[in-house]
Amino acid sequence: MTSRDLLVLHTLRCVGFVGLAHVAEASGLCESDVESELIDLAVVGLVTRVSGEFGGWGLTEVGRVVDGERIAHELVAIGARAVVVEAYEEFVVLNPELLDLCAAWQIRSIEGVANDHTDAAYDTRVLDLLTGFHHRAETACAQLFATMPRFARYQVRLAHALTQAKAGSRVHVTDSTQSYHAIWFQLHEDLLTTLSIPREH
Predict the structure, then answer these.
(1) CA distances from 22 to 71, 120, 131, 180, 195 (A)
(2) Measured between alpha carbons, how far apart are the two ends of the chain, in Å?
(3) Do 148 and 91 belong to one domain?
(4) Is the pLDDT of residue 86 over 90?
(5) Cα(6)–Cα(79) distance, rounded to whole angstroms?
(6) Whether residue 115 sits in one domain with residue 181
(7) Could you count the other beta carbons within 10 Å of the beta carbon of residue 151?
(8) Do residues 130 and 69 both lie within one domain?
C-alpha cells in the first residue's frame, strides 16, 4: 500500500496546484492528516505553498523528481507493472470516447451551438451515454483498482461525479475541478506518471 506521505505527494502531482481540501478529497485522507504531511513535505523542499485567496499547494521541481522515483520504486515492489500497462492500454482506447462525450455536453455539434442545457432530453441522452461509458471504464480498470488501492480512489471519485451530474449538478460533467472530465484527466496523468511516460502536448 502507498505510504501516506507518498500518497499526498503523488496526489498533488496528479491534481496540480490546489488547496488543502482538494488534496484531501482526491487522496481520500482527512484534511488534518493531509496538512500534516504537506508541512513535512514542505520542510524537505518537495512541495511549496502560496498563501492568499488564490493560493494553494504545489510540487517543487525536486518534488516531481522524487515522486517519480518513489512511484517507480513502488511499482517494482508491488510487481504490478503489467496490470498498470494493461489498464493504460484500455484507457487509451476509451479516452477519445470520453472526450467526445464531454464535447457533446458542451457543444451541440449538429447545430454547431453551445449547449445551454435547456433541452433536458438532449442532456439525458448524453448522461446515459456517459453512464454506459463509466460502466465499461470500471470493467476495463477493475484489476488496476483491485491491485493498487490508490487507483481505486479514482473509481470512487468518478462514480460520485457521475451521480452528482445525473442528480442535476451540470458542472460535474466538465466544468468543475470535481467533474468527471477533471478526474479522468487526473487518472490519465497518474497512469502516465506511474509508467514514466511523458505526456504529449
Answers:
(1) 21, 31, 24, 15, 24
(2) 31
(3) yes
(4) yes
(5) 18
(6) yes
(7) 22
(8) no
Q: Are residues 58 and 69 in the same domain?
A: yes
Contact call for residues 20 and 28 (beta carbons, < 8 A): no
| The predicted structure's pLDDT at residue 135 | 97
Residue 110: predicted pLDDT: 74
Give the three cell numbers for residue 139.
470493467
Which whole number is the average pLDDT over 17-35?
96
Can you give the residue range of the structural domain that contains 178? 79-194
CB 174 within 8 A of CB 102: yes
Last residue of one domain, picked from the residues 76, 101, 129: 76
Residue 86 lies in a domain: yes
Closest CA to 190 of 136, 134, 139, 144: 144
Boundary residue ending a domain (20, 42, 76): 76
Evaluate if residue 109 carries a pLDDT over 80.
no
Q: How confident is the model at residue 1 (pLDDT cuts 50, 70, 90)?
A: low
Specify the CATH number for the domain of residue 24: 1.10.10.10
Rounded Cα distance between 27 and 62, Å, is 21
Residues 131 and 173 placed together within one structural domain of the fold: yes
Total-model pTM:
0.93
- Give the CA distances from residue 146 to residues 60, 141, 183, in Å, rounded to whole numbers and listed in that order: 31, 9, 18
